Structure formats: structure tokens, C-alpha cells
Amino acid sequence: MAHHHTTPTLHGLVTGVTDRLKTAGTGFYLMVLISLTLVLAAAGTGLVTMFKGHEAYYNVYREVPWGVLIATYVFFVVSSTGLCLISSIGHVFGVQDFMPIAKRSVFLSIATILSGFFVIAFEIKIPWRMAIYNVISPNLTSNIWWMGTLYGIYLAFMFAEYVFLLMNKHTPAVICGFSGSVAGIAAHSNLGAVFGLLMGRPYWQGPYMPIYFIASAMMTGCAVIILFHILGYKVNRQQMEPEMERALEVTTKIGILLICVILFFTTWKLIAGAAGQPNGAWPVVQSEVVGHHAFIFWFFEILLGMAGPLMLFILSKGRNLKLMLIASFSMVIGIFVMRYNLVYLGQALPVYYDLGVNEFKEMLHYFPSLYEWIITAGGFGLTALLFLIGEKVFDGHKVEHH
Amino acid sequence: MHNKLDLNNLKNEGVENVSSQERRDFLKMGLAITGIFAGGTLFSAVSTFSRAHASDFAKKYPYKPHYSMVMQQHRCIDCERCMEACAATNKVPKAHGAYRTTILEKETPDALGGKREFIPVLCNQCNLPQCTRVCPTKATYKDKTHGIVMMDIKKCIGCLTCQEGCPYNARYFDEHRHAVDKCNFCWDTRISKGEKDTACAHACPGDVRVFGDLSNQEDRVFKIVHQIEKAVWVLRPEAGTRPNVFYTKG
Questions:
Q1: By CA distance, what is B157's nearest residue in A?
Q2: pLDDT of A310 strictly over 50
Q3: ipTM of the complex
Q4: Of the residues A8, A311, A368, B172, which has the fewest C-beta atoms closer than 10 A?
Q5: Residue B27 lies in a domain
Q6: Considering just the CA atoms, what is the radius of gyration of chain A in Å?
Q7: Which chain B residues touch A360 with a CB distance below 8 Å?
Q8: Is B156 part of a structural domain of the chain?
């Protein structure tokens, strides 16, 4: 088992990257340009809103303080955690079939969490205070504090793991990968708890959220891994190796299982919110299933997010890359809306609804403003940009053969 | 068992010896428990259920003084002087959704007699506040001396989790202060300067808002909360936050 690995020189690396960038087609540069434009537009918009006051630009309000930017943040950290967990099956826990997806997945877990941080920076009103007071005035009962801190640790581990993977240092990569997975699970379940442990919000409240978040992250991880690996080979205009095809086949199978798990979770969430018509949850479930939010729920969350991709994945047998590409792309759209539904619906019922007062008789409505959409698009732009650059700089994230 | 109570052989003491005051008190107690008052207000189930909670909360007053407010809801006519006084005293910005206290309106179309009532709301200064638990930086905290839920605005990152955690919609983001703002029972503007009541209570012409110290048995707030003749309740007891704002009427 000889290593094909040779220590690269800086000059060699630069030449390699330059060559790969030179040979890239106009399609690649067009995509880079679009992604970069989205990122810059979002950064510009975000900075303006930050200094002129969010109130004038965002459609969130006193009763619905969390909007699409929180949903987008959740979407990206869900994706990151999922990428980390699914890819760890191979390079941390030693299941050979999953090995080929390691590098690109770890790289993308960093790219997606950075996109999440990018968006949340423009959602939080005074982010620089967070950097100071999270450290000097920590509140250990706060799930937000734990989530932020643990995601910071997670990012450090994932970054270190990627560096060790690049250097082909297996043992430290495994240690960092394992630590990153633990930190990721802890961070992500705390994000679930941010919603789940709010006593005054019956739609969210309970142990469901942290558990659901982890399962949902793994489902999302499968979708993102399949999507970006197929796209990666298209960007590099390369034929997929049999090992990679096999890795995507097993990822598809796990994806099928996890879609079923989340459909199961969703079914019971709805039944629990309907049986006995519990205060606080029942009107929300009604609006979700048959009310004003029903189309968004059924079309995006159920059809595009889960049911459609489930059928396509089964039909693809894990080998028809075209079907898998469509399915995973559909999942990404559906899961994004799934996060939006989760964030919005938990706030849709006014806290004084049961008091029966005139001011709060109806469900609360929210739709993102143009500025919120621009920043959301910037998050996706950043992931796309980092992905595209990563493909060229790291040469298709090839895993060294031993 | 010789000690067993033999109901059949108990001597009838008769009702002729019971004073009319005793009879009236007994009747009142029964009515108070079922929540049906002479006024015919329709809140029986809520009031009896909630009252058990209100007295539970009243058992423990960890702060000295333990600031609290009772809303004599039936007296509120929605003149909004409380809101104006609050905004002027505490520099609440004139923006949509920016207020520390407001008045909600409830209509009961099938009620006999009056069909409309007004419910003033503000921060409930809870004993188990959700907002302080969820704040990542302790920017909002429960003061250890007087128990008022305070803001340390320089620490507020504006994540708005406290707004999500509050079951009373008592918080909003103040773009001028660059922090979440909320009622603090006029601590900085009046109470810490020796005033005896909040701006809203002071401005109320109808004596709706009774502000005081729940740990002082001579205080009006204490006396209203600790009686069983009129129902006393809190809003959203199921959220479990042990609020210090009580409601009564009739």
C-alpha cells in the first residue's frame, strides 16, 4: 500500500491551481460571477441595514421577530451538520464505501456553516457585541449561547480536519472528525433547543425539536452530498470513478431511509398537534395542513422536500445520476422551505391568541422583504462561490488512494 | 371504631343561630370558587383555575421589595393615559410595535350586560422569566434585590430570542437604544429616584393599575392578591413563568 502522495511545493500548487483555472470554461466563470454578485449584493445590503437600522428594511416585526434570515441560517447549519455526520460514516467510523465523499463533504461543511454565519451576521442586530459578551458575559442556561460556542468549536475542528485530510494525516483527521461530529451534534441539538425549550411557544415546545434537528440534518446531508458531488464532476468535466459511484449509491440509500424517518417525524408532529386539539398547536397545524400555509407545506416541504425525491431516489437505484441530481436539487429547495415553515409557524400564533382579544384573534402573517431575499440569496451565493473555487483550488477534492 | 364520625346521630345545630354575615360570607365563598359573580361575568372556568395558580405564586416572595402590579381590569376604560405616560417617561420611540405597555380589547358578544372589556398588559416581571434564561449574554437579567427584569443594553446582541421566549409579547427592539427594550416598572426613571409608583399607575385616572410590594403585608397589592372573595388570576399560567402582574375584576 504505497502512498502516491508527494509533498507539494508552493510553486507546484500555484501552477496547478492556475492551470485548472485557465482550463475552466466560460460556464464556470459565469457561475463564479453570478455567485460573487449575489455575495456582494447581500454584503452591501446587509451593511446598509446594519447601520441604518433593520426596521426599515426587514419585514419581521414585534410579534414575528424571526424571519427568513433565521430560517436560512438554520438551513445552512443543518446542511453543515449533515455533511459532517454523513461523511463521518466513512472517514471517522471507517465504512470504506463512504471514503470517497470525505474531502468534498468536509470542505462543504465549512462552506455551508460560513454561509450560515454570513447570513446571521446581518440578522442579528448588533453582531459585534456578540463577539465580546459571549466571552465575558456568558449565560450557561442559554441554548443560543451553547449553540454559538459549540458551532465555533465545530468550525475549528472541521477546518483542522480538512487540513489534515489535505496533508493526508489520517489519525489527527479522524480525531478532529470525531470531535467535530460530537461538537456538531451538541451544537445542532442546542439549535433545536433554542426553539424547543421556549415555554410560551406550544408549536415548538418539547424535546421533539433537538431530536428532529439531528435527524433532519442527516437527511439534508445526504441531499447536499449527492447534489454537490454530481455537480463537482460536472464542473471538472470528469467521469465519475466507480468508488465515487458506489459512495453516492450508499449515500442515496441512507438518504431514502432518512427521508422516511423525517416523514415519520412530520406525521407524528401533525397528529400530536391535532389529537385533542391542543391549545397553541392546533390552529397552527390547521393552517399548515388545510389553511393559509397549506400549499407551501404540501408543495415545497412534502412534495419537493421529501415525497418526490424519495420516489426519484428509489427509481434511481442509487445509480442514475440524472435522477439523483434532480432529486437532491429538489430536496435542497424543499428543505429550505421546511426550515422557513418551522421558523414561521412557531410564531404564527400570537401569544395572546387564547385570551381572545381583538388584537390577536388571527394568525400572524409574514413574508420576507426584497432586502431579506437578497441576503438569503447571498448565503446561497457564498456556498456556490466557495464550492466552485474549492473544486479548482483543491482539484476536485480527490481522495488519495492507499 | 368508636371514633368514627356517625353522621346519622349528629345533632342538628340549626341555621337559626348562623348570623346573616356568616351566611353571606359562605355564599360569597361558594360563588367565588365557582367564579360566578353577581355581575354575571362569564369567566368561571378560567378564574377558578387561574386563582389556584395566583395564590400558589403568592406564597413565595424572594425579593425585598417584591415589586408587583395588580390590574383592576373592570375599571379600565382604555383612555390610554398609562401608555402616554409610559412612553413619555421612558422615552419609548414612536414606531410601529414600540411600546412597553398597551391595552388589549376583548369583546364577548353573547355576554349579558357589558360586552367589552379592556386588558392592560406589560412585562410581568416573572419569577421564572424565560427571557433571562434564553439571553446568551445576560443582557437581560432578574435583579437580585427587587426582582425587576432589567436590561443591560450594552450587552444586547439583538438576537431577539428573549422576544420569542416571552409569553406576554412584552419586548421589542428599540432601534434608537440599539437594544431590546421592555418595561422595568420605571425603575430607572421613577422608583430608584424615590417615587412610589410607576408612570402608568400614576397616570391612570381609574385606579386600574395598583403598584406595590408583594412582600409587605400592609401593601395594597398584597391585600388584593391575598383574599378569596374576588378572583385573582394571571395571564398564561401554563407558560410556567410565575408572573408578578395579577388581574382582578368585579
A1: A126
A2: yes
A3: 0.91
A4: A8
A5: yes
A6: 22
A7: 104
A8: no
**Residues 74 through 93 of chain B touching chain A, CB cutoff 8 Å:** none
> A63 and B136 in contact by Cβ < 8 A?
no
Least confident of A14-18, A101-105, A204-208, B134-138: A14-18
8 Å CB contact of A201 and B169: no
Task: Judge: B119–A355 Cβ closer than 8 Å, yes or no.
Answer: yes
| Type of residue found at A106 | V
Residue B229 lies in a domain: yes
> Which residues have CB under 8 Å from A328's CB, separation 6+?
A222, A223, A224, A226, A227, A230, A255, A309
Cα B246 from Cα B67, distance rounded (Å):
12
Cβ within 8 Å, pair B136-A138: yes
> Structural domain tally of chain B?
1
More confident of the two residues A287 and A17:
A287
* Residue B140 covered by a domain: no
Residue B232: phi, psi to the nearest 5?
A: -125, 130
Give A358→chain B minimum CA distance, Å. Answer: 6
pLDDT confidence of residue B60: 72
Please give the grid coordinates belonging to residue A341: 415553515
Burial class (CB in 10 A: 0-12, 13-18, 19+), A62: middle
Domains annotated for chain A, with CATH where assigned, are 21-397 (1.20.1630.10)
Q: How many CB atoms lie within 10 A of CB A159?
A: 18
Q: What is the CATH number of the domain that holds B30?
A: 3.30.70.20
Write the pLDDT tens digit of every residue in A131-167: 999 999 999 999 999 999 999 999 999 999 999 999 9
Predicted confidence band of residue B20 (pLDDT cuts 50, 70, 90): low
Shortest Cα–Cα distance, B239 to chain A (Å):
5
* B69 in Cβ contact with B126 (< 8 Å): no
What distance in Å separates residue A43's CA from the closest CA in chain B?
19
Q: Are B235 and B213 in contact (CB under 8 A)?
A: no
Between CA B164 and CA B180 the distance in angstroms is 12
Point out the residue among B161, B167, B172 whose CB comes nearest to the CB of A194. B161
Q: pLDDT exceeding 90 applies to what percent of chain A?
A: 85
Q: Is A358–B134 a contact, with Cβ atoms under 8 angstroms apart?
A: no
